[in-house]
Amino acid sequence: MPPVTPLLDTVHSPADVRKLPEGRLQELADELRAETVDAVSQTGGHLGAGLGVVELTVALHHVFETPKDILIWDVGHQAYPHKILTGRRERIRTLRQGGGLSGFTKRAESEYDPFGAAHASTSISAALGFCVARDREGRDNKVVAVIGDGAMSAGMAYEAMNNACETTKQLTVILNDNDMSIAPPVGGMSAYLARMVSGGGYRSFRNLGRSVAKVLPRPMQEAARKAEEFARGMVTGGTFFEELGFYYVGPIDGHDMDALVHVLKNVREIDDRPVLVHVVTQKGHGYAPAENAADKYHGVVKFDVVTGKQAKPSQAAAPQYTKVFARELVKHAELDPKIVAITAAMPSGAGLDLFAERFPDRVFDVGIAEQHAVTFAAGLAADGMKPFAAIYSTFLQRGYDQVVHDVAIQRLPVRFAIDRAGLVGADGATHAGSFDIGFMGALPGMVVMAAADEAELARMVSTAVAIDDRPSAFRYPRGEGTGVAIPELAEPLEIGKGRIVREGTAVAIVSLGTRLAESLKAADMLAARGLSATVADARFAKPLDLDLILRLAREHEALITVEEGAMGGFGAFVLQALASHGMLDRGLKVRTLTLPDIFQDQDKPEAMYAQAGLDAEGILRGALEALGISNASVAGRRA
Fold this sequence. Notes:
By secondary structure, this protein is an alpha/beta fold. It has 25 helices and 19 strands. The model is unreliable at 180-187, 229-236 and 632-639 (pLDDT under 50).
C-alpha cells in the first residue's frame, strides 16, 4: 500500500517547495522519505544515502532557485529524493529498469540534473566549470555541489578545491558527512555557531577586522588572520578547508530542517569567496531497518517496507565470479606470504572482505582513489611483493595513467583483477566494463586474460600469481558462473594459449570471456542448419594465440570473434594479426562481434546482450552474414 502523502502530492516541481512556509518543510521531508522507501522497495537500488539527505534535499530546493541555480549531486546515487521533487515522481518506480529512470543523475533526463554523475568526486570540478561560465557571462545564479565524505577521499576533489578560490567568488560546496564524522555536531550549540559564522553580522565584523588589520605591519596582518581562522577552526573544525581558501561553516545537523534552511540562506548571500558547509547526516535516517543495518541499506534488492526484509534471491546454481576470485586468492595467499590485496573503497563488492577475514593485515582499502591504488600496488611490486589490485573495470579507467606510467613502462608485476567486466544491468552505462580489453591490451608487455567460466577464472588467478616479470590482468563479469567444477588448486595457464572447445569446418567462432556459453549455443543453432562450427576459447586477448588464430583462419571459410567489450579490443587485435600475416588476402570472411558503439542504458543483462547482438541469436546472425546466407527466420539484425 503506497504511503499517504497529502503535502507531497501538491509538489510538482521545486517551485512548489519554495512556496511552502518553513514550518511545513519537515512535514514534506517526512512524506518524501516515505515515498522514497516505498519506491525503492519495489525497484531495489541505493537507499541509505538518499534517506540521509532527505532534509538537505528539501532545504536546498526551498532556498535555491533550481534549475536556474545549479545543483550538482556527487555520485548521484543519493538523488532519488531529488528526482521525486523535480517532476519525476510518476516514474520513480521505474528506477534502474529498462526504459526507466537512471539510478544516478543524468542530463538527458531532466533540466534539474545539470551534470550527470555516477562515479565519485567530480562535482566540485564540474561546479567550477559552471561558475566560470556564469561569471564570464555576467549572470547571478548560484552554484551548489553536494559531495559525500567518502568522495572526499579522491584527489580530484582537492584538486578542484585548491583551484576554487582563484577561479570564482561564488560557489557553495555541501560536505555531506555521513561516515567519516570529521567533526560531529554538538546539538543546538553547533547549529547556533554555524548560523553565527555564516550570518551577515559575523562576516561584517570579520571584514571590519580585516580592514583594520590591513594598516598593520605585514607580520601582524598575517598573525591576525591566522588567529581568527584558528579560533574558528577550534570551534568548527574547518581550518583545513580555510587553508584551501574556503569559508567554512559547520558542522550542522543535516536532519535539523530549521538549522539547514537558515544556514543555507546565509551562505547563499556570500559572494566574496567559496563556501564549504559541513553537514552531518545519518545514512538510512528515518527508516529503522536501514538505521539498524550494518550497511545502512546502501544498496538493496526489493524489500518489505514494514519489516525491511529483503527479497531472497533464488538459490544460485553456481557461485558468483567475485567470490570465486576471492576464494582462489585466499588459497594462494595461504601458500605465499607475499600476496597482498588492494581495493579502492569496494572491499565487499570486489570480494576482498573474504580475503580480509583471513588476512586482515594483507588487504588495503585506499578509499575512492584508484590512481593511488595503482601506484601503491606498483610500489609494492617494485619491492618484491605480489599485489592484486581488485578494481571494477569502470573504476580502473580512472587510474589508467598510473597503469601506463607507473606499472607498464616499468614492467612491474601488478596483478589487476578486473571485476564487472562487460555489461552490468541496472547500473547502466556509467558502470559497464566496456573498455578495459582495449586500453589494457594496448600496453606493451601487458598480459590480458578473460575467464569463460569459474574454473577458468581459478586458473587465471593461478596464472597471475605465477607471472612475476610483467603486469597482468584478468577480467570477469558481475553475476554467477556456469556451475563447472573448480579444482582444489588450479594449475596456471600457458601464457598466450587458447583452447578448442568444439571442432567444426565451415565457420570458426572465437570467444573471449563468458560469451563462450552463448557461442556454443550459436554453434548448435548453426548445426541445426547444416553448418558445422568450430568454437574456441581464446583465454588471452594479449598475447594472442597466433598459432590458433592462423590455423582457424586457414581451415574455415569465416571467422567470428566474440567479446564483452567495445570495438578496438580483442576483435581488433585478431584483425591486425590476420592482416599482418596476409590471411585477409585470400577472401577469409571475418566478423568482430563487440558491444555496440553506443552507451547502453540500464536494463536486464540478457536484454542488453540481446541488443548488443552478443547472445546466441546475435552470434548466429553474425555467422550467417559472414557466410553470405540469408535466413528470414532469424529476425532483426545486430544493434
